[in-house]
Amino acid sequence: MSRGGEMVYIPDDSDFSSFRDQCESLEGWHCRYNKAGVTVWSQGQEESCTVQKIKTRISCKDVPAETLYDVLHDTRYRKKWDSNMIETYDIGRLTVNADVGYYSWKCPSPLKNRDFVTLRSWLPLGNDYMIINYSVKHPKYPPRKDFVRAVSLQTGYLIKANGDGACILYYLTQVDPRGSLPKWVVNRVSQFVAPKVSR
């Protein structure tokens, strides 16, 4: 199993700390939407050669942080709330807080559907929770003919308790949908149909 030719590594405390900093920082982020407790930012220019990072902050008034974490963490429950999902399943557990899994999702026409194999890691911190992932290559799960194998460069959730029975959800993603698409189209797709790929 590898990450773009490199050996796979399990995220450590510094990786989670860096992810939290990216979620909470406003520096270098451009607000694209802000309404009814939902804010969306992007980082990077649409015309640039790199794939944009997209970040969403959602205020959840009636959902405890622990409940939201359990919902996002439960792959079997995902089909109830992720209408874009085609299929998801666990491939194998690596440590007590890391596993590898498969996820496929429906793309709007005329785009071909995408799939991922990702290493997911999670970290509960008292009232806060994090789930992060990135794509890996697994010899037993090569790309399929009926999907384009997309790449999660970094995707995850930060869930922060916000008073009694409420929380704030950050969703940050940098996904390359792959396929023969210009970068500006890739970034537009990332903004509007980026998969909720934290399995």
TrEMBL record:
A Pfam family the protein falls into: START
Domain START: 27-199
Origin organism lineage: Eukaryota, Metazoa, Chordata, Craniata, Vertebrata
The organism of origin for this protein: Chaetops frenatus
Alphabetical list of PROSITE patterns matching this protein: START
GO biological processes: lipid transport
Localization, UniProt: Cell projection, Cilium, Flagellum; Cytoplasm; Membrane
SMART domains: START
A GO cellular component entry from the record: cytosol
Name this protein carries in UniProt: START domain-containing protein 10
UniProt entry tagged with the keyword Cytoplasm: yes
GO molecular function: lipid binding
SUPFAM superfamilies referenced in this protein's UniProt entry, alphabetically: Bet v1-like
Keywords, ordered alphabetically: Acetylation, Cell projection, Cilium, Cytoplasm, Flagellum, Lipid transport, Lipid-binding, Membrane, Phosphoprotein, Transport
